[in-house]
């Protein structure tokens, strides 16, 4: 059977087309590009000053939080010193204790209150812009003097007013929003790394 005869081929092509079109829409937006640069500059400035990046989200966005923290703490393009970044989604004992003793919507906020210091950056990822535990994390960050960043979909909703920087992917589709978030995050991590460290051969 040829590839073109596959019953899945049209659906596969449609999704790739949607992905491409969503990224093209982000690329065509001067505001989206400027927001990406502004977040890269913020992270670079704060990390250079000895502050840290704390990141949270649910489900796929939890995976994205861990992915981004890994790119910063480990490496992105080349070997260099680790950068202080922490995903607030990885400690099951902490998360279940807070969820059990307080409430699930406090699982990130309580960690922010215990870990964030003035000058740190707290990043909340929510494709809907209204995840209660992410909203409360940014509220807690403001009380700690941390700068807040929101990665959202086209409508920032509840997170927008709480974020000093908003990166709103131009889509209402959760998987497409997540793809834009990670593309933007990779760009940001690359810019941070290349600015703070000397790339090989430079």
Overall description:
- By secondary structure, this protein is an alpha/beta fold.
- 51% of the residues lie in helices and 11% in strands.
- The protein contains 7 helices and 5 strands, in the order ααβαβααβαββα.
- Strands 2-1-3-4-5 form a 5-stranded parallel sheet, with helices on both faces.
- 40% of the residues are buried.
- The model has no long low-confidence stretch (mean pLDDT 96).
Number of strands: 5
How big is the Rg? 18 Å
Low-confidence blocks of residues: none
By oligomeric state, this entry counts as: single chain
CATH topology: Rossmann fold
Largest sheet: 5 strands, parallel
Tell me the CATH architecture: 3-Layer(aba) Sandwich
Overall pLDDT confidence? 96
- The side-by-side strand order for the widest beta sheet comes to 2-1-3-4-5
N- to C-terminal separation? 50 Å
CATH class: Alpha Beta
* Strand-pairing-aware structural class: alpha/beta
Please give the count of helices. 7
Fraction in helix: 40-55%
Please tell me what the overall shape is: globular
